[in-house]
Amino acid sequence: RAVRFAKQNAEACFALASEIANAxxxxxxxxIQSRYAQTQMQAYALxxxxxxxxxxxxxxxxxxxx
Length: 66
Description:
Elements: H1 2-21, H2 26-65
């Protein structure tokens, strides 16, 4: 999953660069960056929750085997 998350984050970064390259003015750039920051923070939070859940499940399954 971490690889999938890294790929998603890289794709979002490339999309950001493309949007900024097509921005008409500084205000557009700032709006694009703000939107990107909000979206990515939400994505990072969800990714962290998912990775935390997976680590908890792995730890619990190891505990049951012991």
